[in-house]
Amino acid sequence: MAASGYGKRSAPDQFPRGATDFSHLPAREAYLASLIDRLPDGAAMDVKTLAAYQPLFGQMAVRTALNRLSAAGHLRRIRERIDSKDCRWVHRTYFSRTPRSDAWWDRFIATGEASTPADPDPPKERPATPAQAPAQTPAYAALADLGLADARLSLSAADCTALEPLAAEWFARGTTPALFTAALASGLPPEIHSPAAFTRRRLVDKLPPERPVSAVRITECTACRAPCRQPALLGGLCRPCRSTPTPPPPTGLSPAAVHHHAARIRQAMATGTRAGRGPGPLTTARPRTPGVGGAGPSCAREPGRESGQEDQDGKIGAETTFSSALS
Which residue in 200, 220, 293, 300 has the most C-beta neighbors within 10 A? Predict the structure, then answer.
């Protein structure tokens, strides 16, 4: 189970559970959807826990299946505040056994209601009941109670009905019944000849300002968990996650090209080594001739050519051959 307030939440107004609930899904997605459907509310819904619940699929497969269940309309991840007075946010995953459209999820996330004209809920049979008087709205009840707070503001039923739309605007802006009564019944003149006209003027003149509505729910992308506005999510996925990633272009040389260049380099090195030591294969050392005055043997050299000059010529020849091989 997840921590209190987190985890799975079942969407309202689903069809009864049956054997063909997920027959329209591939085998892997149908298996995991059936597993999630039977988990109790509050169960952990992270990828690691779902992979540990069953022995068939790992974390990567579970993550892909959740994305596809979201695109099929069975799942949405929501980040919402616990209540209007608590600033803490919780992560919840809403699951619907019945596949829903994006319009249905938009309506449900925004208002908590399950019906929308474009995609209605399954019809319900309601027993016939005798007609009852419509229930009073908070605005009507608050207007009727003004006479109890002060007799000078006693209104008739017709007055309450006529003033109800103006009073309803107060409650739409977050006014409570106690604040409504205090605002209208305070500072009254000694005598009021027309309670309905006086109340209408106060409803218009003392209308409270509109308060900024703080968001209590934020939809997350099912794949990357990034918070997004609901219109930007199609199938519960953001635009980067909906697009298929393109593989990066190949870099470097192929194995055959590497072997080919290595062979050329070895050939160039071998040619350069022979060119540095003189033409032809290596031979045995030439015989030494005794020096003048018996000073000992010495190597015969070409007149006017020093040893350092020979080494330098050999290096230049090797470098020239190596460069030509590479080109």
Answer: 220
Query: Residue 128 has what pLDDT?
Result: 38
Q: Which of 9, 222, 11, 1 has the alpha carbon at shortest distance from 97?
A: 11
Total Cβ atoms within 10 A of residue 4: 9
Neighbours of 89 (CB within 10 A): 15
pLDDT of residue 300: 45
Do residues 78 and 220 make contact, with C-beta atoms less than 8 angstroms apart?
yes
Instruction: Name which of 216, 136, 210, 212 is nearest 177 in CA terms.
Output: 136
Q: CA-CA distance, 150 to 139, in Å (whole number)?
A: 17
Structural contact between residues 129 and 169, judged by C-beta atoms closer than 8 angstroms: no
pLDDT of 168: 92
pTM of the model: 0.41
Q: Given strand 86-95, what is the order of strands in its sheet?
A: 7-10, 86-95, 75-83, 217-220, 227-228
With a cut of 50, which residues of the chain have pLDDT below it? 4-5, 116-131, 133, 278-285, 287, 291-308, 310-311, 322, 325
pLDDT, one tens digit per residue, over 215-268 is 567 778 888 878 777 677 777 888 888 776 556 666 677 888 888 888 989 888
- 237 three-class SS: strand
Among candidate residues 200, 197, 234, 196, the one with its CA nearest the CA of residue 101? 234
Residue 180 is predicted with a pLDDT of 92
State the CB neighbour count (10 A cutoff) for residue 307.
9
Its sign, for the CA torsion 120, 122, 128, 129, is negative
Phi, psi of 284 (to 5 degrees): -75, 160
Burial degree of 81 (CB within 10 A; 0-12, 13-18, 19+): middle
Cα distance between residue 110 and residue 104, in whole Å: 10
Q: Under a CB-based contact definition with an 8 Å cutoff, are residues 35 and 66 in contact? A: no
